[in-house]
Structure formats: structure tokens, C-alpha cells
Design goal:
Length: 128
Amino acid sequence: MKQTLLLFMSLVMGFLIILALRPVDTSLEHASSIEAIVDSVGSDESTGDISLHMKGSDIIFSVNRGIFFGMKKEVISSLMNGKVALIHYASHFTPPDPFGKHRHIIQISLAGSVIYDENRDPHFTLPN
């Protein structure tokens, strides 16, 4: 009985580790999107992440290492706060975030102009 339980728990843990370590698909073909008003912009200096909070949503949308790509919280905040933005984000499940409260941003469009695209270099460009 103990061996069966140990084997079962090992398989479950192995499966969860594989889910946690699998790469995130950053193609627009497999992305989900939200179009909403940007409520606030945050940043985490230790990771370099920029986060967007949208009105009517409790999900935190993050640009991983956005600060390192030239994004500044103050610039993004003044550019986007109170404006409608189209956010494309990776649609995936990961055990560290089982309820999907944090989403990885792939692309940000503002007034029809793409200002951030993870699959383009440079990743971040200010609109004209």
C-alpha cells in the first residue's frame, strides 16, 4: 500500500514539474486577448517586470523583463493609464499560478499601434 501511494505521488509530482517547466508559447496564433482600459501600471525592479492592471479584471498582465527592454514605468503609465489597450497574452496553465491570475504579455497595441511585441526586435517602441 505504501509503495503504491509513493509511486502515485511521485508520478503526480513529476507531472506537475513538467507542467511548470514547459516553455510558454509566445505566438499570436495561440494567444488570448483582452481589450480594456488600463487602470494602473506597476514594476518590479528586482525582476525587471512591468505589470498592467486593466479595469474590470483581477488578472495581472506582465511584460517579463520589460525594464531591461527599455520600458520605464513612468513612461508606460503616462502613455497608457486611462486608455484602451489591446493586450495579447499567452494562454497556458502553470502549477505556480493555478488560477491564472498572472498572464504573460506577448503584444500590446495602443490606438491601433503596436508598442510592444515580444517576438520583434526592438521589443518596445513608442508610438509616433
